[in-house]
Amino acid sequence: MIGGAIDNMKTFEQFVNENYKPVQDETCGIEDNQVFRTGDIINYAEKNYEIRDVKVSDIIKFSSLSKENIDDMYLISVHAGGGIDDLIKKYGRKATVKNLNDDEKKRVIDLEIEKCMKTSLDYPVIVVTDKNGKYKGLLDGNHRLVKAEKLGKDTIKAYVLPYDELVKNLENIKMKTFEQFVNTANNKTIKDFSYVIEFFKNFYPDKNISNIPVYVISEDEWSDGKARQTENDRKGGIRIHENQIDKDEEIGWLIHEVGHVLDLRGERKPYLVSKEEFDGYPNEDDEQTPMWYQFHYLINKGLSEDQVIDLEKRDYSDCKGGNVLWNDYKDKFFRRYYQEIKKKI
Ligand SMILES: [Zn+2]
Description:
4-stranded mixed beta sheet; binds zinc ion
């Protein structure tokens, strides 16, 4: 579809190979709702800061893979590297390492240590500090830091960045929060994105979607797949193709993408059309929540079944993805889905 929630999985092979060095397209963050794209942070650090030697013992507690923290790591984060699909199936998406039995836990930790040891300490980790200059967290380098500790190193190469400065400089580091994106969008067809925030207030009066990270990426990045989608601790963000900002918003694509982020944050909606009746994309786990919101929106707007199908059809035919072309299956499925939501309103 038009945007893309950051939610694809890598194979284990890919993950291990890529982790010799930092993964540009992953997201990183130390606070919920405040997630950066790793590549942007690295570029910002390289431009503005010198590499320093930081004592491993001062920052090891910030690694999500350190002895103190590994119990709280989500299986889904391990799963981003693959190799434990069976455990995810057994324990569910929200399980953490402490849910596992001893054998399973050992397997997961061995897997992570193996990844740690394959990283390269030539690449500086990224540490952030609080207002008083005290270490506050680790934005990038969880695996490298554990490797340095295991090898008995005193120090590790690091960029040390004040956290507040990063948040203040979001504009300069490419990412925007959803709110900034809404407030700075000025295009012909979508004059006012704020309806999306209003729409979600109907469902989540107490939940803030305004800090969801939005990455507007170039046509080039989009089409050659450089901006690969990744999942990170169920946080995620929204990727938007820069050419799509001018696109008509009547299909509710932005609502669909916010739905993906809520899904990654654990707000999953159930299947409305059974897997027996329609098996395969878009009737899949990850698409239930986005479609739930999108169709609520379209039906609230007063669109008929045929109108919704026409919009979907046009949306799919505009998409260059190739794997998402319109067909009979999607026609029938979306009609069934429309009817199911209609019953709920
Ligand atoms: Zn989707």
